[in-house]
Design brief:
Elements (H helix, E strand, L loop, with lengths): L11 H30 L1 H27 L6 H9 L9 E7 L2 E8 L1 H8 L8 H15 L3 E8 L10 E7 L2
Antiparallel strand pairs: 1-2, 2-4, 3-4
Helix pairs in contact: 1-2, 2-5
């Protein structure tokens, strides 16, 4: 059987369900390796490796999404908005984007990772340092004129109405 052949027989609904399943599997793998390092070596060591992984993965993900969407070299904040909606976990977390002039506010309203850690009685994931790597790197790869700043993210929560918030600015 050639690669992808089994997918051709699936209905649109089955393909959408499979994308959701793949997204959940990806997120589970991300959590499993992280928690393995966290248990064996502690949070600091796990965060180090998480940051190193995101430095590379976020660029790969952004490049592939940019190519898939056929975005120009400098698609601006509208291109970033589009690209954010096609990230792997866009299927898993409820989010919103607010475009206002030369800024785009991206808010994760419900975070599957934090919800799972809370449910398991675990400390919340201190995602701000890795989020800075992830979101800034993703945005820069979509359009190198875009900068990113954290508005609210655990452990520095300034907005209780969301799990995290990131402000992207188009520097022209």
């Amino acid at each position: 059987m050639r690669p992808g052949e089994s997918l051709e027989s699936l209905s649109r609904e089955q393909l959408l369900e499979l994308i959701s399943l793949y997204s959940k599997n990806w997120l589970a793998m991300d959590g499993v390796w992280f928690q393995s390092v966290e248990r064996k070596r502690g949070m600091e060591e796990a965060m180090y490796h998480d940051g190193e992984a995101w430095k590379r993965f976020t660029v790969i993900e952004a490049r592939r999404i940019k190519a898939f969407l056929g975005l120009s070299e400098h698609p601006g904040l509208e291109g970033l908005r589009q690209a954010l909606s096609f990230r792997f976990y866009a299927n898993l977390n409820r989010d919103e984007t607010i475009l206002n002039g030369n800024t785009l506010l991206y808010r994760t309203l419900e975070c599957r990772v934090q919800r799972a850690r809370s449910r398991k009685g675990m400390e919340l994931h201190p995602c701000k340092p890795v989020g800075l790597i992830e979101y800034a790197g993703f945005a820069r790869e979509i359009d190198d004129r875009i900068t990113c700043r954290c508005v609210s993210c655990y452990p520095e929560v300034t907005d209780e109405t969301c799990s995290c918030a990131w402000l992207f600015t188009l520097e022209e």
